[in-house]
Amino acid sequence: MLRNSLLLVFFIANFLTAQKQLSLDYYLSDTDISYNPEIPKPQDILGYIPGEWHVTHDKLVEYMRVLANVSPRITLENRGTTYENRPLLLLTITSEQNHSNIASIQQKHVEGVHQKLTDAIIDDMPVVVYQGFSIHGNEPSGSNAALLLAYHLAAAEGKAINELLSNVVILLDPSFNPDGLQRFASWVNANKNKNITPDSQDREYNETWPGGRTNHYWFDMNRDWLPVQLPESRARITTFHNWYPNILTDHHEMGTNSTFFFQPGIPSRTHPLTPAKNQELTREIGNYHAAALDKIGSLYYTEENFDDFYYGKGSTFPDIHGSVGILFEQASSRGHAQTSDNGIITFPFTIRNQLTAALSTLKAANSMRVSLLSYQNDFYTGSDKNNLKGYYVFGNEKDAASTNALADILDAHKIEFYNLTKNESYNDISFKKGNSYIVPKNQRQHKLIEAIFEKRTSFKDSLFYDVSAWTLPLAFNQQYTEVSKNIKPGTKVDSVNNKITEISSASAYGYVMEWHEYYTPKVLYQIMNKGLRAKVGMQPFTIKNKTYDYGSVFIPVQNQKLTQSELFEFLNTLSAKNHVQIDPVTTGLTTGIDLGSSKFKPLKKPTVAMLVGEGITPYDAGEIWHLLDQRFDIPLNKIELSSLENSTLTDYSHLIIPNSKTESFTKSQEEKLKNWVKNGGTLIGFRNTAEVFNAWKLLDLNFLKPDNIAKNISFEQKDDFSGAQNIGGAIFEAQLDRSHPINFGYHTKKLALFRNTTQFIKPDKESFNNPIQYTEKPLLSGYISKKNLDSLAGTVPFVHKKVENGRVILFTDNVNFRGFWYGTNKLMMNAIFFDKAM
Question: Pick from 672, 681, 654: which is nearest to 802 by CA?
Fold first, then answer.
């Protein structure tokens, strides 16, 4: 024991000595390379050598701007800002000669994805490498390595660097996630000891909730490359399509006890649409990483843990674009130093490994330039494209905004699509002109189109690092179909424009708004926030040959705070700004329920709070925050769970609990929430809060637990066996009772739900208490084990119960998944607006 303690003291002493002696030579140790003394070193601007402190985003930006000002090899572009108004920088780094001709180089490179290039043209083209760092803000070794990489590329001199910069255009993205990086760097720097301790229990290594991994709204931005819902994602996707890089690198960190990973990942978990040649090139590039890491003695591995399946990740998104995506995962010090299974892992060590891999990537790109360029050119201009026939057609005749949101994603990815010339029916599905689009398969992005629209239920492997399905038309609640016969499309859509709406005339009686359009919750909140009265119709009705569906909202003219003309102007402005149709009515007499009927329930403006903090899943909480704050302009009060007992809940009508567990709550917190519900509050929970509500006896749930007993499974196979019982993320079909308020706004009886939990709840014996129920064959897209699928069939993802004067609402599924699951957002909004009508 004493010997071990002495060894630990020895290691720490050596580490502290190494920290004090840290210099650029630790990172850039090649003695054959000299550096231009006119180029400022990182420490000249930062005040310290990278690795001594964690660089904050503002200092990172400052250094990159300095380099761009002094180096003719670098141009700097600000592509926009984050939610916290931080710049999204991109450095273009290449030779001075290439810079003088950069527009022509870029144009020629992009031509390679449109037309077949000759060998002579390819042989004369530079290869393009997009190097991106630290998309997870608390995986900072990447962005800190970007400082050194930029310095090296700006200042290195000699034949080798000149050849590299002549043959390679480098797009350097020093921080994929500025907000998260700033948050994490501030934490570890504020808690750094002068005498650094590698003890993982130290406060430095235990950042507070939600941590620096995510962006401002707590999104994992490494899952947003395909759905592109965030400003950071939009910036990098624009860069990608402006250049179509041949290699894209994505520098991450993983657990402290790991080593270093580079792709390829697990072969059986590569998406079937990714060409085999892609994986061959990935392995060839990997040889350069191995040689470089061998040289500095760093441990590494490949073809384990990680995969190349979901195209929404930075390392996989390029694979469906004729590029090669490379994931780097460095064991993390999560601060300045930590004890690990491989000894004390220091922050400088993690930076050096990332820098080494970044440099080996460029060496590989230079050496493999022609093969990389030829591969991408063949990917887009190969013969398989010319043999493609058919179309995808999608639309939602009642919800143009959701249709356009999906179309906007296609537009961001340079996918061509067209308007319908008239109302059409394909495969017994009706599509309305103005609310539908046609996507021809025969275009250069045909592989990406298939990845977006396909329903896949057959897989080589049963384990997934991320989701197994993301079928975007289902996510946006679109009617869609694949059409094999020839279609004559209408005009090509060059930009997605929302429909123009206005109120046809002022009314002295009232106005009616159907609840189908995506932004109707935003409009309704603004109506009520103005102090105006509104009611929701519990049944359909018809006025002037127009039938209004369940959930239509009636705004009377009489007894309002605004005059008749003021009300018209206000509602007309809301209609135009939010692209939501509001109709004037001149009579309360209808076919169906009359407008003065008791079947119109009065609505009250909600005041919404959400629990956040330790014990709550930040992703789920962030998605809710983003939805209300960004999409619907509804104020959301975020209450720290640790402060709950001292909070005044009487100000709130609704309290949301994102995914959480029973052990996250104290007994006094439980009692406070239960009393608040009994006194009239509405408690809305998601996913594992099913077990919380059940334990608190707010709901009486009957869980179905499938038996998963291992038979003929070896010790070696046990992890794979248990992993296959998880639902990592798949899409399932549910049957709707459209008359129930939770389903107001849905005009069909089926709905696609995203699910990544194994909470199976048996239906209530009273059928009207099961307004959303999984069908008997629910799987639409993705992987689920047979036992889980059998268990899921017929269960319910929604439970509602009145508890004295209040209500408890439960969703077992995430209806706001990653900000792009538009199709089920309205379920949560219905729970907020129409809870008292349930």
Answer: 681
